[in-house]
Amino acid sequence: MKVWVDDQRCRGHGVCTTLCEEVFSLTDDGYAVAIDSEVPAQFEAATEEAIASCPEQAIVKR
Ligand code: SF4
Known about the structure:
By secondary structure, this protein is an alpha+beta fold. The protein has one domain: Alpha-Beta Plaits. Helices cover about 25% and strands about 20% of the residues. The chain is built from 2 helices and 4 strands. The chain has helices spanning about 15-20, 45-55, and strands spanning about 5, 25, 30-35, 60. The longest helix has 10 residues, at about 45-55. It starts with a strand and ends with a strand.
């Protein structure tokens, strides 16, 4: 699984980074980005939780 943050939707709440800091991080601009590579298997559940929990539905699988 790979994920991507839609920067047109992200409002920088940081829910995703709180749930899975190994996959998501906040940039200096205050928006989230996801790691570019495949989500490691051990973080897939937390990543799915972040997708479901994002208030802006800004995280998409790709
Ligand atoms: S939870 Fe959603 S809106 Fe908040 S920082 Fe993460 S991607 Fe952006």
